[in-house]
Amino acid sequence: MARRASGRMSSNLGEIRMTTKKFLCLTTSLAVMVSAGAATAQSLAEIEEAAKKEGMLTTIALPHDWCGYGGIIADFKAKYPDIKVNELNPDAGSADEIEAIKANKDNKGPQAPDVIDVGLAFGPSAKAEGLIQPYKVAVWDSIPDGIKDADGYWYGAYYGVMGFAVNKDLVENVPQDWADLLKPEYAGMVALAGDPRASNQAILAVLAAGMSTGAAPGEEAGKAGLEFFKQLNDAGNFVPVIGKAGTLAQGTTPIVIAWDYNGLSWGNTLAGNPPVEVVIPKSAALAGVYVQAISAYAPQPNAAKLWMEHIFSDEGQLGYIKGGCQTARFNELVAAGKVPQEVLDAMPPADAYKDAYFPTLEEVDANKAVVTGGWDAVVGANVE
């Protein structure tokens, strides 16, 4: 899978590392919502009516086993039966989403995405290129400042922590840290969950690997991460196949470096056949935010706005939480008693995430440039 987690987010993501408890305290202090009139010139009723007339919403890169998107999309369809959901390329990466907007600027047909869900680094760059348009959802004030554009061009709904999804039938000794992956016993076993030249998930996996060596987040860790994967590839441990539930189960990629919620979802889907363990590595637990935005060239802009209202609503946020993620409004919903206890009990223990590091946007951008520009030359593995 070439794409894209549990209760904490920083109000100033560029400067603060947060534990789950700190995130919960932060989001409690945020206002629950602003009026629809303050968020947009249109009322929600007007947006809904216009969206029904458009009759379609085109999404891209939303696999159904990613952070609960299968249920979130199903709920949207049930709520708005007059709006067809056209799903493009579920396994696309963040860079592919941006390219889809560029390639369809003059196309109002079904190949032009209305909305995108991309890694944090792609939000500001898409805004700078004029590829996305502003919209503030009704609960705008409930989204922490550090994960949204002040003008409403992009906004984060959830995040993940980088981990290892391990097929326990095939891996006798489950690796606990990045350095373990270099051991001979993992020959032909380790894969990324995306192409590091295009997938935000894979690009940040390289950053995490570099940080595990002691390198500073950003350019330094990006370079160190490339060297780590060069060693992994030279040792014969790296498998240049995009890892997902099927390859994990089949044994093509018995160890997949992926967001924690993806590993948890794959484990739930496989239902013990084989058993899957998700490990958060001890030396570098890297958190990554995904942001949502509306294409500046959206053929169905009102349906796009309605989608944003849906994913940030109580129902949408609960959909992410049920998918193993924690969200922008997580604590607000917990405090209001809206998250079922069995859902909370199924989430990973907070202790595994207490040292999760939220890289700054500058660090993310610097790493992205190093990894996408240097993977072929340094590692030389064509991941597909």
Outline of this structure?
The chain has 384 residues and is α+β, with helices and mostly antiparallel strands.
Description of the molecule:
The chain is built from 15 helices and ten strands. The longest helix is centred in the C-terminal third of the chain and has 18 residues. The strands form two sheets. Strands 3, 4, 5, 6, 7, 8, 9 and 10 form an eight-stranded mixed β-sheet that branches. Strands 1-2 form a two-stranded parallel ribbon. It has two domains: 206 residues, D-Maltodextrin-Binding Protein, domain 2; 143 residues, 3-Layer(aba) Sandwich (D-Maltodextrin-Binding Protein, domain 2), CATH 3.40.190.10. The radius of gyration is 20 Å and the shape is globular. Helix 11 crosses helix 12. 56% of the residues are buried. The protein is an alpha+beta fold.
Order of helices and strands: HHHEHEHEHEEEHHHEHEEHHEHHH
Radius of gyration: 20 Å
CATH class of the largest domain: Alpha Beta
Class based on secondary structure composition and strand pairing = alpha+beta
Secondary-structure arrangement, i.e. CATH architecture of the largest domain: 3-Layer(aba) Sandwich
Query: Tell me about the biggest sheet?
Result: 8 strands, mixed
Low-pLDDT stretches are: 4-40
Averaging pLDDT over every residue, what do you get?
A: 88
Number of domains: 2
**Percentage of residues in DSSP E strands:** 5-15%
**CATH-defined superfamily of the largest domain:** Periplasmic binding protein-like II
What is the count of β-strands?
10
Number of helical elements: 15
Q: Termini separation (Å)?
A: 10 Å
Here the CATH topology of the largest domain equals D-Maltodextrin-Binding Protein, domain 2
What spatial form do the alpha-carbon principal axes imply?
globular
> Fraction of residues in helices?
25-40%
